[in-house]
């Protein structure tokens, strides 16, 4: 038996809420996280039919990519679909959880999965985020260095790319004089002390700060450990928007359009006609990614695949890059599969189903 909170905690370990964009509203939107989870419906968008689907199956958790509550809700009277969903979900004890730009911004997320669908190689995040990393500097007696390091590493601190337990240590001399109220591990009141100490430096993502400081206090032998927390300007290459990678072999524009149509089961593609080159390097972003045009050009990508491109934005691409607008829904539909895989792998005894409701509000008319 698992509480809904167990599933949420796991999802937030993979895609921390701290990685969502400022405008976003990820997390538990409706419901009681302490309930026992009776089953999960995974969808891209929450519409009333999806809530009905959960009710008919007897499942009490909906995990959606898009938050159905974006703006402030001041009255809940059922006057629009958002209010009606809130009412129905609460009446039926259904929790609704959104995992949106925090899932977009991780390596194994929405764009990463799109890159996988196209079989791209040498992939990396197109626009890595700044301001997510800090460094802990602390000073510990050489005799206690290992125990402290292991304690801090156990929080997940010290990871850089494919390397974990990264730290830097240099030996020096620490000095201090305890007063009469102190209870020093080493030394006595009112006597200056000098101890051989290691200066340790460890990088960590900001959202782990509380755990890191707790581990520092738990594993450091001193009554009052000295430490500095330093905000870093480094980009976090594992967190950010879009992906860029390469095709195994270059293709003509026509072959590429046919290739992505088949691989991503597309109905239509809006693309720039000015670009005439071959396609080898591919930038992409699930959902609205027109803001990445400059990054895609700077990365020397031949194409940017995304959605929600406006008419005038197509001009900005000139002939420098092929822009393919494949549709918002189409660029993210594989997210359902991604979430389902993540949840079923970890919670084998909980029923997780993909919603069978087609939630794309846009239709395509064909003659
Ligand atoms: Zn989206």
UniProtKB/TrEMBL annotation:
A divalent metal cation binds at residues 65-66, 104, 328, 332. Pfam families: DUF34_NIF3 (PF01784). Keywords: Metal-binding. GO terms for cellular component: cytoplasm. InterPro entries: DUF34/NIF3, DUF34/NIF3_bac, DUF34/NIF3_sf, N-reg_PII/ATP_PRibTrfase_C. The keyword Oxidoreductase does not apply. GO terms for molecular function: metal ion binding. Transmembrane segments: none annotated. This is GTP cyclohydrolase 1 type 2 homolog. The lineage of its organism: Bacteria, Pseudomonadati, Bacteroidota, Cytophagia, Cytophagales.
